[in-house]
Recover the amino acids of this structure.
């Protein structure tokens, strides 16, 4: 019974870790996209 509990606990911790990792990757991707948009807008301003 203790072994089952330990396995379930490890699976739960891994699921939480994986969810946080995916969320962090999405935030990093969005920041990169926002920086690119800012650069493009600045280029457009310079051309006007």
């Amino acid at each position: 019974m203790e072994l089952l509990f330990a396995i379930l606990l490890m699976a739960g911790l891994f699921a939480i870790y994986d969810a946080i990792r995916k969320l962090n990757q999405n935030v990093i991707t969005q920041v990169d996209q926002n920086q690119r948009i800012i650069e493009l807008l600045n280029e457009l301003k310079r051309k006007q």
